[in-house]
Protein: Aminotran_5 domain-containing protein
Amino acid sequence: MSAYPPPASLMRPMEIPPRQLFGPGPSNMRDVIAESQSKSLLGHLHPEFIKVMSDAREGLQYLFKTKNNYTFAVSGTGVRQPLEGLGEACARHGTLLLVDTVASIGGAEFRMDEWGVDCVYAATQKVLNAPPGLAPISFSDKAM
Structure:
């Protein structure tokens, strides 16, 4: 017998009653997302993994309204800053525009290419209603 037996709490299934989350995050997941998490894991060397990553990138490009190739998954105050014209002003002064959309992407208008944003990052557990742990990020060609 081990000198350190596992606690009883680890020996029984976790029971969490369903609830509706209304705070700033995390948010409730859609059933299709929860179901997908119960599937077998894919390693980065599996051929199917490339397809999953490609689909995720396309979804993020749609979400950010951008066509750039430097879009991938990588976590505010909740203040919404008007961005129209800011990217143009940054470009005139030779600076890059970085935007935190953690609490707004998917719930508020965002147009990376149109507004001249050079880098944007978000989080999955807020308005996107996905599990926490991913931080979508996208870079313009200029930022690379």
